[in-house]
């Protein structure tokens, strides 16, 4: 692991500024990178680079690009308020950072660490370039409670099961308290750099402009994140442990996109829920369950660090021989558009398409349906989520899809096949979630809304539902599909025995 700090070479002592390179830490509060720069005694200049020129890293999906645009606008406004010069540039990070450091007369550059292999390689190249020019580089953990390499098995290697990982992480003590948000008085402004307008990055859709529904649901940026945290503490945290699996209730934090882009830090969330517990706003059980969800995110990054091809290769190599079915285009299309004939699946996929987000329980249901009912390779679904989720995350997305597939670390057993009807009845008992996203079924009684094919004819007529016309018939028989999936798994077990 590289050292955080490298010495300044003597021939460049005339340089008198610090460059802060923002990446996945688009906030001012609890940002150790920014704090270090502001307390260095150097005038500070900030930079964001949209790097779509360096080969290798996975390009952002469309929904994530939209979120990034809004978050950058918010960050730019926040930097202006505290007098911090902030520029946006587009191009190769290696080239752009070196040029910006030269223009700013920087003797030090500060950034927050990234953990996917492609992005870490870029950072290493940038660091080498700057160091060769005598610019000191300091990097910080601004995204995680623990660095991925800090939590270890007793043997010193990585942990591959969540429960022992989280136990080990929790023995390391409480995360440090969040750093305060800097004020204008904290800033010694460095040189103002030239750049491009955020709109010039082409991150937002134009023709057609499909982001209208996202604008109705989300307010990206640090200010929106602060408001969302307070709303969750007041309205969602109490009862979280019991209700978080209910998509028909506002019982989850919806912090995932804000964590993804660093508008809020996990340390801020950790201590915020503790404060809420102390003030009687939630129980210890609620707080521990929420922290466990933060823990799964930490575990996902632990896996990504140690197994960098997590999004492209089966974690368990025996799954390389799994007999996936050649995807039927009509099945893939029905799944993506929410037209499978299974209401809870269709509601989830339509929620994803219209809001860029999907309830965690429903993520598992729709993933299980694609993988096990349709026998479509998990990577196909992971790729769709990458494009359509505002919270598409290098670690979480891949680790979670592999968990459902049974091919990942600490995976759900492959023979655990979610029954979409029973899942809907259990977690959306009144059908309110389905009604919200599948309006053509809105008049069906709760008894039938998760299995309209079983409803009596008079009930269907009264609800205005005609299978095959107003709402599709199931594209597969779940019980037949389940048997087929279990047979495929048995074949895999036999081949790897």
UniProtKB/TrEMBL annotation:
Q: Where is this site: Electron transfer via tryptophanyl radical?
A: 324, 378, 401
Enzymatic reactions: cyclobutadipyrimidine (in DNA) = 2 pyrimidine residues (in DNA)
Alphabetically ordered keywords of this record:
Chromophore, FAD, Flavoprotein, Lyase
A biological process term (GO) from this entry? photoreactive repair
Q: Write out the similarity annotation.
A: Belongs to the DNA photolyase family.
InterPro entries attached to this UniProt entry? Crypto/Photolyase_FAD-like_sf, Crypto/Photolyase_N_sf, Cryptochr/Photolyase_FAD-bd, Cryptochrome/DNA_photolyase_1, DNA_photolyase_1_CS_C, DNA_photolyase_N, Rossmann-like_a/b/a_fold
Q: Give the source lineage, highest ranks first.
A: Bacteria, Pseudomonadati, Pseudomonadota, Alphaproteobacteria, Hyphomicrobiales
- Record protein name field: Deoxyribodipyrimidine photo-lyase
Gene3D superfamilies reported in the protein's UniProt record: 1.25.40.80, DNA Cyclobutane Dipyrimidine Photolyase, subunit A, domain 3, HUPs
EC class: lyase
Q: Which SUPFAM superfamilies match?
A: Cryptochrome/photolyase FAD-binding domain, Cryptochrome/photolyase, N-terminal domain
- What are its E.C. numbers? 4.1.99.3
As to how many cofactors bind and how, the note says: Binds 1 FAD per subunit.
Q: Does the keyword Flavoprotein apply?
A: yes
Positions contributing to FAD binding: 240, 252-256, 290, 391-393
Q: Name one Pfam family in it.
A: FAD_binding_7
Presence of keyword Lyase: yes
Q: Which cofactor does it need?
A: (6R)-5,10-methylene-5,6,7,8-tetrahydrofolate; FAD
Q: What highest taxon heads this organism's lineage?
A: Bacteria
Q: From which source organism is this entry?
A: Hansschlegelia quercus
**Which residues does the UniProt record annotate as the domain Photolyase/cryptochrome alpha/beta?**
16-145
Drop me one GO molecular function for this one: deoxyribodipyrimidine photo-lyase activity
